Amino acid sequence: MNQPPAADELVFYVNGNKIVEKNADPEVMLLSYLRKKLRLTGTKYGCGGGGCGSCTVMVSTMHPISKKIQHYPVTACLLPICSLNNMAVTTTEGIGNSARLHPVQERIAKAHGSQCGFCTPGMVMSMYALLRNYPEPTTSQIMDALSGNICRCTGYRPILDGCKTFSKGCCLNNEVNEGPQKKKCCLDRRDEENDLPELKNFPLLFNEKEFLPLDKTQELIFPPDLQLALAGKQRMKVFQGERVTWYSPSTLKELLELRTKYPEAPLVMGNTNIGLQTNLHGVFHPVMISPINVHDLYTVAPDDAGITIGSAVTLAQLKTILSESVHKLPKHKTKTFQALIQQLRTLAGEQIRSMATLGGHIASKLAISDLNPVLAAAGAQLNLISKGSQRRLQLNKSFFDEAVSSGISPNEVLLSVFIPFTEKEEFVSAFRQAQRERNAYAIVNAGMRVRFGEGTDMIQDMDIFYGGIGSTTLSAKNTSQALIGRHWNEEMLQEACRLALEEISITPSAPGGMVEYKRTMTISFFFKFFLQVLQNRNKTVTLSGGATEYLSSIKDFDTEIPKTLQIFQEIDTKQPARDPVGRPIVHLSGIKQATGEAVYVDDMPPVDQELFIAFATSTRAHAKILSIDETEARQVPGVVDIIRAKDVPGKNAVDGQGTLFSEETDAIKYKSFYEPFKGIKHGNAEEAFKTADHILEGEVHICGQEQFYMETNSLIVIPKGEENEFDIYVSTQDISTSQFAVAAVLGVPSNRIMSRVKRVGGAFGGKVTKPAIFASAAAVAAQKTKRPIRCVLERGEDMLITAGRHPVSGKYKVGCMNDGKIVAADVSFYTNAGCTIDESFLVLVVALVKMDSAYNFPNLNCRAIACKTNLPSNTAFRGFGFPQTGLVTETIMDAIAIKCRLPSHKVIQ
């Protein structure tokens, strides 16, 4: 029987303190290590997938080739501690505290950049990592640095205001700073177009001159003993956990031997893909290989034909390498580089770009990859190596085709990627459409290349690749081949669009849906490519409908540097200093939130004998439980008890909801409604309809929305040991609801339940009633086990159980005159309440009262009905029904404008 290898010690630094971990577990992520082992709770859990930035910290290391110290932001939730050997980690606690603030912490706090404060430490560390590399960054660099951080409270304006105070050459206007063409700086808060005459000298929200200066000589240095260790000869490290063995080879030879021995083991660099599979989908790998110290994987070698880039180069480093090449080389050679840079600007956030590698991005073959379509279209080649052989593989249709075994073999390693230069008559473009510009998966993306015969517009070669519309990157090879020999004109454009729609088929079950939209985008991208090539070749062509009106489609939306202006009444000089009214006072917890000292529920230290509660959610909608077999569950290590409905000593408030249906439309069909109905009647709509010139009818369907508060539902229930008294620390907007619910479930008077709320990491209506459910379950567990219970939901679990904003179906009938004037309306709103009523009636009332928005409906019949379905109960959300009903009303206005052939603003007036 094979003996497990002897484990090495893991050595790294955290905030200047040396950590020697003798039993490093490869399954432990840096986030949990910081919070649970080191009790550095300033780093927060927000999503577990590297998408929100709450867990951002800075990692410092020595580059294996240049030997320069480099600092970069990472998401701690995806970073295994075993990848940190001989590195240094810095968290917000390591750069300052409330007694000795770091300038980044001070400026974000005093610029009012914190509200709930849960995202603030991540914001601080993203900005701090940028300043370690660029002490005087541009505003564009600041926006890039913060692109991987989500804030649900502030709207980002005050965060950027605070961060922009570090910028000297802050905006794109600073090159014109003299003479009549002088432009205003983005830091100038006075805007002549918006200033009111009587408020020319209005006060500022903060005074930049009072801020601490940034002194880079006061920052933590990279530990000298790590420099010595990294400068010397390296050896392979092995870390052995309970279930997983982690190998970190130091040479290419060791890597290839491991690859031969463990062909199924994943190669882990930034862990941005494997980490997601592990954290969110439960994928398990008993052996993991991390070639992070193999120097051969960091090659950067330009030659006459192109540039070879090592597979371990991160996407952030790739962007820098390509940008430098673009500045040095003739423009016609770097068209592929420019297309890749365009995609890299918006691919994920800065943290993920600093972790993910070029090789991992390619080898994962993800359908949403923004780089693979461009690399494939450009003719990139993969340099592969295995024990005893090397080969070069073309990145083409066969590589991505799952039915063809022409990819990377299990015993091979992707050594580097060769990206060829482009020729003068060769053009490469990249396209991407997502729900937002930055830090969002592409709905559809594409890479396209065409090469013409010298001095002609005849297509000599072409490649088209799409992402986001299948299980991997797709090639429109047949379309490309059919167009070779055609002239670059409108006839070719029409034929290309027809062929592409025929070749690229999108099934109704495609991930993400939006089938028709994606089909439209495939030909829309080619149309843009057609125009771009014409423009780059300085050619004009007459298109049906005129060429000029289409040229705007190829212009990128300029990312404007944010400019802010706040106008408020200056405080009277006679107002006493102790009177805070009207003063721009710093958030009382702002400093502590920026330094990580603010304590949220899960930041509280463990209580003696504390247990964690996990919820078993139903995998079937509206099913009847016939029996429950607890045998296997009780055999899982660590399980103390299983809590069921029979354990509830008091009232189980979620019983007795009656027959439920799966969809809102089913509920309407079978009249599965909660009563009473709500309605408003004004005037006589039935009679008014008879006088209308036009009667319009229609439906509007609006989907739901997740609150996505940064802090998931969190609470701790502590039994006091006498008289059935319990202390509850809970993140909620309505402390009394949780108190009364726990008392009812336990069957005790409410004065026996002491509820406490210190702060909440975001809510937006989602923590009014929902925390009471979790508090009640935890309280039953605490009563039965007589031990404290901690409940902290994972992001997916939270979203699955809590639901959010109500989906709404609106049906309208409206009568209007030829001039657009409304005479009558009959509107019905059906909301998907879910399996319980929750806050649905209150949502209906607000929706009804506000449905007329700013318009006059002289005769109105309006009703709102809450549908009973077998989905999780929807609840309060900012706006309370008005966003949905307001959209229905605006749809009515648009329908009238179209019918009466009037401008929308005329109908609105």
Automatic annotation (TrEMBL):
Would I find Iron among this entry's keywords? yes
Q: Where is the FAD-binding PCMH-type domain?
A: 239-424
According to its UniProt record, what is one Pfam family this protein matches? Fer2_2
UniProt entry keywords in alphabetical sequence:
2Fe-2S, FAD, Flavoprotein, Iron, Iron-sulfur, Metal-binding, Molybdenum, Oxidoreductase
- InterPro entries given for it? 2Fe-2S-bd, 2Fe-2S-bd_dom_sf, 2Fe-2S_ferredoxin-like_sf, 2Fe-2S_ferredoxin-type, 2Fe2S_fd_BS, Ald_Oxase/Xan_DH_a/b, Ald_Oxase/Xan_DH_a/b_sf, Ald_Oxase/xanthine_DH-like
Domain of life according to the entry? Eukaryota
Membership in a protein family: Belongs to the xanthine dehydrogenase family.
- The protein in question is named Aldehyde oxidase
Q: What lineage is this protein's organism placed in?
A: Eukaryota, Metazoa, Chordata, Craniata, Vertebrata
Alphabetized GO MF terms: 2 iron, 2 sulfur cluster binding; FAD binding; iron ion binding; molybdopterin cofactor binding; oxidoreductase activity
